[in-house]
Design brief:
single chain; about 190 residues; alpha/beta; Rossmann fold; two-stranded antiparallel sheet
Length: about 190
């Protein structure tokens, strides 16, 4: 499944240029860009992401998985769906980018209660900023963040920064794996 996901990411989500032509959220220029949404919102991509992430979380004692909207949403929902199929249901939740100012004011949306052990997910980690924001907001809502998983680690320090907030942090796919496969495909 991982090989198929890497192939799909290379076809739909990964772009490479010999020159640094891609502007990142940080403002820095890069010679590659990863936009996971064409993969995570594709039926087969959702299937692969969900099952691979569920395998990462199967033995963890987490009751829910979620992260900062919008990048984490399809990843968390796919994992939740796969967990039900796998016989060990894990709920999904979403963390807002801006706090709701009406009704019940909160950062986290979903069927989740303070004290629950959760995993934070994200689609891509460069600096880890979005994932760290999600961890902080989840903790502000009383959730016990015990794990973080990113779909693609750009290997630029993000995973190490995340580990500064939660010890158990990992990636399903790395930049090196994507680049190696991309080069095989484009020979």
């Amino acid at each position: 499944m991982k090989r198929e996901l890497i192939d799909m990411l290379c076809r739909k989500s990964f772009q490479f240029s010999e020159e640094a032509v891609f502007k990142l959220v940080s403002g820095r220029m890069s010679n590659y860009y990863v936009n996971c949404k064409p993969t995570t919102l594709h039926p087969r991509g959702m299937f692969l992401v969900g099952h691979l992430l569920f395998e990462h979380l199967r033995d963890e004692s987490v009751s829910a998985v979620g992260g900062l909207t919008f990048g984490a949403d399809p990843v968390a929902m796919a994992a939740s769906f796969a967990s039900e199929l796998g016989g060990r249901p894990i709920k999904a939740f979403s963390i807002r980018k801006t706090q709701k100012d009406h009704g019940i004011v909160r950062w986290v949306e979903g069927d989740i209660q303070p004290g629950e052990r959760v995993a934070i997910v994200d689609d891509v980690a460069t600096t880890g900023g979005s994932t760290i924001t999600a961890i902080e907001r989840a903790r502000a809502e009383g959730l016990d963040v015990v794990r973080a998983v990113v779909l693609v680690d750009r290997q630029e320090g993000g995973l190490d920064a995340i580990r500064g907030r939660v010890a158990e942090a990992s990636a399903i796919v790395t930049r090196d794996e994507l680049l190696a496969r991309w080069r095989e495909i484009h020979r």
